[in-house]
Amino acid sequence: MAINPVPRRTLPDVVAGKLAASILNNTLKAGSQLPPERELVRELGVSRSTVREALKVLADNHLIEARQGVGWFVRPVDNANFSRARELAQMEREVQPAAARPAIGETPTGPRRLPVAPEKPLHIPNLRTDRLGTFDFISWWERKRVEEAKVLIVGAGALGNEVIKNLALMGVGHLFIVDFDTIEAANLSRSPLYRESDSGRRKAEVAAARVKDLNPNVKVQYLHGDVTTQLGLGVIRRMDVIIGCLDNREARLAVNRFSYWMNKPWVDGAIQELLGLVRVFVPGQGACFECTLNEQARRDLAVRYSCPLLARQNILLGKVPTTPTIASIIGAMQSQEALKLIHGMPVEPGKVTHFNGMVNEMHTTAYRSREDCESHWTYGEIIELPTRAETTSLDEMLKIARADLGPDAILELDQELILALKCPRCRTVEQILQPISQVSFEFAHCPACGAMRETEMTHVITGDESFLNRTLASVGVPPLHIVRAYNTQEYRFYELTGDLETALHFSDFEETSPTHRESIRGRIHLGETVRIEESRSNPARGRVVLHD
Fold first, then answer.
1. N or C: which end of the chain has fewer CB within 10 A?
2. Domain limits at 337?
3. Angle, nearest 10°, between helix axes 11-24 and 48-60?
4. What is the pLDDT of residues 107-120, one digit of tens each?
5. In angstroms, what is the C-alpha Rg of the chain?
6. Are residues 179 and 280 in the same domain?
7. Rounded distance, CA 453 to CA 429, Å?
8. Are 348 and 208 in a shared domain?
9. How many independent structural domains does the chain possess?
């Protein structure tokens, strides 16, 4: 007796089958336009990435076609594509086996059950030598998924310390830590990764070094910089999960938009005294962070952004009183949500879980998604270019865009470019030509009379500028960023993939090569006694820079 293999259909296959069936039964008529992605996401109850994969399956089988700048349209069913359409339609009626797993960020439909991998081989770990061995006893735990996962942690304060510690101990294979702040004495009461001797050092660097102390098998990278302006979207594009450990609304809004643009889930946490909250945002599934802002919060943002230099200044504020206990609780919950996303387990996107440590109460409520939310925009196809931010000029980038989009194409920058500051009292004009992230609020005051100067700025490059020879980096475009260009009909998205090797490597604090040892020596001032052997055994100590 011949035994046929059990068909294994993915969720995109099932969605493609459902749409193929609608084409065959003429519910979707030849020549008609498919509903927008957002509507398909809502009607089918799947994520935007699943819908996109399903549409690609239909396009590859010549059942639909894309019309540039318009959308997807149904092609006529004929002898060339009928048999394939019928095969795809069969998928809708085939039951997915239990082993089929959703992609990261997707919420499985049907009853909420803990996923179990039925094919997981029985493995008895050696607990004397395998630091992650006990995790293998967890029925749904998949070591390979965890070791291959890439997680971006934004913020290395109290919450960030807890999240970084938890992910390192769980063996999450690749951690990228971003923070622009330095360590001060007040951090020591709630940040277990920092020591008194770390005062004045960069939080992201020290936290990354301590990851290697906790688990040498984890690959780690850090960025001492502002996530709102100094992290390329190409980094976020390659992450599985983003975790926000932030203390201000502006940075959260930036992370929310970047995550939505790149179609990546992110986990937000917030703490104050004995209170805290955790929420998961998944593009296309429920509300996003910007949807949660009330009218007063929107007015506050509008007031701050009426003076853009003041808006940036506010990002640097936001010292919130917290306790190490609430940081531990909320950081643990964030880490757990990230672990669920990595495994494709059910999450509750667009909802918030509040924890009140005063009375030990916890409750979850849902946010309402706003149809007019400005964050609800996902980039289209990313075109990878072998170009770098440091060496590519605005003129060269504009020529690339115009080769695709025509002579009217325009580049759109993510941050404002300050062209000049004008004093309304002295009538003096000072040419600046710097990205807003490099111009302080204090600099906005006239040096002669002290009046607040008017800001002349732009966020587009039209080709008429006198500074087209300037590089992308000089106008605030970070390495491995994705540059937007558009004409009157459509957008194009260009990644500076030439920066990939240096911008995303996960090799900070790896075993040092002779060349790297020389670079360490170069960072130690004369008169210091730090030895190379010492820096290799303790990477956190190896990056100390002492001043005379």
1. N
2. 135-366
3. 60
4. 555 555 545 455 56
5. 26
6. yes
7. 9
8. yes
9. 4
